Amino acid sequence: MEAARTHQKVPAQKLDRSACLGPDGAVAHVTRCLRMIRGRWKLPILFRLYADEMVRSSHLLRDIPDVSQKMLTQHLRELETDGLIQRTDFGETPPRVEYRLTDRGEALMPVLMAARQFGEEHERETT
Fold first, then answer.
1. Which of 4, 9, 46, 89 has the greatest number of CB atoms lying within 10 Å of its CB?
2. Which domains does the chain have, with CATH numbers?
3. pLDDT tens, position by position, 100-122
């Protein structure tokens, strides 16, 4: 019995895949986005900042279980560097620093909410 050769049944058309691949394609842009939110604590930080307009780092430490001060600080700095959050230092003693989503961070939230919905639907369908 001969193995199926489905590749011979599919018409071979020359497709322009530059919209997906290449240095300015969809894959590159999605990869850039995923790099910005990669990290164990970045999503909890973003969703916490989405829930409240301004949050102090001490509240983030309290509200995100198991995160260390070091990791929280590292992820906050990375999110700030990527332009997703804004840090406001009030220059007071004791130090008071607050974080909030930037416009770019706000623009990312519908994408994350859609990913959340996809995850919920996928879980329901597979269980």
1. 46
2. 42-127 (1.10.10.10)
3. 999 999 999 999 999 999 999 99
